Amino acid sequence: MTEEETKDEKQEKNDESKNQVEDTKSEQKEKKIKFTFKCQQCNKCCLERGPIPITFWDLELWAKNGVVANFLPYLDIYVRPDGVMDLVLKPLSPPKKSESSDKEGFSFEEVPIEELLNEKCPLFNKDGNKCLVYENRPLSCRTYPLDFDGKNFTIVDVDCPGIGQEGMTKEELKEMRETAKTMYAELTRMRINLPVLNQIINQKVMIDLMRKNMEVMSNLSEEDRAKIDEILQKGTQKKEGNVAN
Ligand code: SF4
Ligand code: SF4
What we know:
Low-confidence stretches: none
Helix content: 40-55%
Oligomer: single chain
Largest sheet: 3 strands, antiparallel
Mean pLDDT: 83
Distance between the termini: 100 Å
Radius of gyration: 29 Å
Bound molecules: iron/sulfur cluster
């Protein structure tokens, strides 16, 4: 084998592996842009969504459109298992048969959010089969099922029937990706600020409560105060008795 031939062979091998790398790159690129989506309006995501995170973007939109009050009854604070605190739309609990009758009814207040992770959004109307707040729906609903974690895009619900449907334009894909990025930024902003706001509000509520209690106490007659002292003393004695037992 001549030196010239060896050089040629080496060059050929290099070209071959370069082509393979190029092929793999374009395959990966193809795979990356394979995400296509067309919502099929099946409403599955509204029926089993669980708590829906709310961001400042949503609050600002609702304030601008004068609809904040419509959302207030459904808002709650949810502390996730990893300790992250979210403002959420609390899902409706499933209908329960009341103990005294066979009638079904909703018990919205009593059920902890942890038990409602796959339940219906409170703003979905089952009879009309529609979102009651479509124009003001949260950012999280606008980007569903695409999510962005600061680095990568992911699918939050691989069973969403809209995934893989043809017909999505480049502009629609771009808009969906931008919305997912906005959601990430807005959720991060909310998660930084919410614990502080929550603390301030709780403190304010406690101070108001204490002030009201003090006002009530200062207006009590001597007789009423004596009665309260008596009740408190009985309570303390009962506790001490329980400890001794
Ligand atoms: S986003 Fe998916 S799950 Fe939700 S309505 Fe559209 S197709 Fe159905
Ligand atoms: S707010 Fe509307 S779009 Fe969002 S989950 Fe509820 S019903 Fe569905």
